[in-house]
C-alpha cells in the first residue's frame, strides 16, 4: 500500500481495498477516512465493505464522501473536525488521494502558509497547482479562466467516449480533442457475463486506458465534477477548468449498490455475487461450479439498466452448467424481476421461454430486491400488484446473483445538462442536447430511450461524430440514430438468441434470417459473441473503424 505522509497526524493514498486493512494496521495507522463517494467505478468497493474490513482489524473508519472538485468550506471544516476526533495517525484516501489532500490543504489554508501546504503536497507526489486559486480565492472558481482549451472535449473514456474520439479523428484528423477520464483501466464490460460463466478469463476484459486512447487525442486523467455550459467550461477535480468549442458527454451510469439494504456488506461472500462488477464476476463462476443443490436466485431491478438482458443471461448460463453436470434437478432456479415482462421486445420472448421451461426456472415478476441478509441467506423483495398494496416477500437462497439498481452519475444528475430523471437531455435522433447546441451525449448516460448496451454506443459514436462535423461545417448531411441496440442473450453454452432492435421495439437485424435468425437460439450468434465481437470492440469500434455501423444520414 503506497501511502504518502503529509504530517505526523495524516497520510493520504489512492483507493484502499478491504484486503489492505491488515497491512495498514501493521503500518501503525489507527483510523481511516474515506473521501470517495460510492459507485464511482465498477471495480470500486463500497464504504460499508471497507468499514467492515477496517473494524475487523481494529481501525476506526469514517466515510466523508466528497464529489471531486466540489469541496466547500463546510467540507474542509468537517474534514478538520473529523481528523481531530480520530486516533492518530490517520490515513485519508479517495480515488487517487487528490481529493483527500485537497481537503487537507483547504482545511489548513487559514493556519498554514500557502508555500508550506504546496511543499508538503509536492513532497508527497501531488501537484496542487490547480487548487491554488481555490485557496487564494476563498473556494471560488473563476470560470473566465481556463487551464486548457480544445475543439472537442469528451467526458468519459469508456466504450462510447473512445469510439467517438476515434470516429471524430477519422473524419477530421486536425481536430484538437481531449478525453477526460480518471480511470487507469478500460474494461470490456460485455465480457463479464462470460467471465461469470467460466468462458472468458477476467484479464481478457481489461486494457490500460493509455492503450485505447487514440493517438493524437489528449487524455486528461481527472474526474469531471461540474459543468458550466454558459461558459463552455468543464470543471475538474482540484477546481481546474477546461474550455471547449464542442462537448460530448458519455461517462456511463452509476451502479447504486447502496439502494439495496445490506447488499454492500455481503457482496463477494455468503453466496452473494454480481457480474456487474469486474472483481465479482469470477466469484459468480466459483459459486456456480461449486453448487450441487439448493436455491439459486437471480434479480433484475427497475429499468433503466445497462444491458437489460444481462440479469437473465447469468441465470441461463448458470442453469445450463448445472444441467450439463446433472445437478439442475436438485437446484431451484428463480428469476425475480422488478418489471412485468421477461424481455421488453416480444419477438424474442418465445425462444427465451423455451429455456425458462428447460431449466424449470420460476419467473417472479413485480419483485424488486430491497434488502439482503448475507449471513442469514435471506433476500427481501417488494412485490407489487395492480389490485393490492405492496408487500414484502422473504426468499431464502444458497446463491444469489444481484443486478444493482442504476442511475445517472451524481455529477450529471445535479448538472444543468440533466433532464428531470437525471439523464443528459438529448434529441433521440441527433443525440444533440435539447438546450445547449454545442453539446452531444451518447452511451448509457444519455436520455435517448434505447437499450443501454455497448452495441448502442457502437452505432451512436459515428452519429455524434458525423453531426459534430456538420456543426463544424465539415459535413453537410445530418446523421440520425434509429435507437439500435443489441443484446446477445446467452441461453446456453454454445447458443445465443441475438436480440437486435431499435426505438419502439422495431427489429433491426444485422443479417438476413437465412444467415442468422436472431429470434432463435443459434450457434452462429454464439460464435459472433465469443469470437468476433471482442476483437471488433478492441480493434474496430475503439479505432474508428465503423464496420456495419456507418451512420444513417438525411
From TrEMBL:
Domain Beta-lactamase hydrolase-like protein phosphatase-like: 2-110
Protein keywords: FAD, Flavoprotein, Oxidoreductase, Quinone, Transit peptide
Pfam family, one: BLH_phosphatase
Record-level Gene Ontology MF annotations: FAD binding; hydrolase activity; quinone binding; sulfide:quinone oxidoreductase activity
Required cofactor(s): FAD
Gene Ontology biological process terms in this record: sulfide oxidation, using sulfide:quinone oxidoreductase
Highest rank taxon of the organism: Bacteria
Domain FAD/NAD(P)-binding span(s) in chain numbering: 150-281
InterPro entries: BLH_phosphatase-like, FAD/NAD-bd_sf, FAD/NAD-binding_dom, Prot-tyrosine_phosphatase-like, Sulphide_quinone_reductase
NCBIfam families: TIGR01244 family sulfur transferase
PANTHER family from the UniProt entry: SULFIDE:QUINONE OXIDOREDUCTASE (PTHR10632), SULFIDE:QUINONE OXIDOREDUCTASE, MITOCHONDRIAL (PTHR10632:SF2)
Name by which UniProt lists this protein: Uncharacterized protein
Source organism: Nitrobacter winogradskyi
Lineage: Bacteria, Pseudomonadati, Pseudomonadota, Alphaproteobacteria, Hyphomicrobiales
